[in-house]
Design goal:
The chain is α+β, with helices and mostly antiparallel strands. The chain has helices spanning 22-36, 45-97, 215-218; strands at residues 100-101, 107-108, 113-116, 120-124, 136-141, 144-149, 156-158, 170-173, 179-184, 222-224. It is built from three helices and ten strands. It is rod-shaped, with a radius of gyration of 43 Å. One of its GO terms (molecular function) is unfolded protein binding.
Length: 228
Amino acid sequence: MTSPSSQPQTLSFSAKFDPSNPLEFLSKAFKLVAQRSNFLEKNTAEKEIVLAARTAKETVLNEKKDRQVKTTEEKKKVALAVVEKKDKEVETNEDKKKPQQNDGNGMDLENYSWQQTTTEIIIIPPVPAGMKSENIDLTIKENLLKIKFRGHSPIINGEPYAPLKSEDCFGCEDDHGTTYIILTKQQKGWWKSLMKGDPEIVISKLEHDYPVPDPETRGEMTRIMVID
């Protein structure tokens, strides 16, 4: 007679699984095994069951660990991407704040913008709210340039890049309210910066020499008095 365990059988097994009491499910499974085989009668049955349980436990723990590692790595990637994005935004904002060489052969700085030809410097200072060009005080000498609006700190105060022809320097305002400070250089040539110690432009990028504002516009401007 063939023993229950000698011939493979396909059996259906139905049981409810309660996560709060998994041993009840295992007990029913062992009962089925006992009914259909001699496995539990073996001397090594208990050891084999413990080994199977241990193997299953290790598999579950390893899979859980792998998921945790994967989740941690994904979180690190997301965090790194966020940091890189913020770094790029900071770099972009810092680049925007950095002085930029402009198309007028000069530079756009935080407090003002300046342009140049080989003979002149043209400064375009921002006019504070409620101020007009007549509220600006100019002190222009050979080696001194000071520009300030009354009641405000000086926009510029120091030594220019090279000597000025002070008698030919002046301030003016156009019909649109834009204020210009026009400085005449003692010697013809390009300046790397407006003031000594300021950020410098790249001279090799200068390709043209044009007056700003143009002569026709200058003739219609209102002059600003220079203070000696």
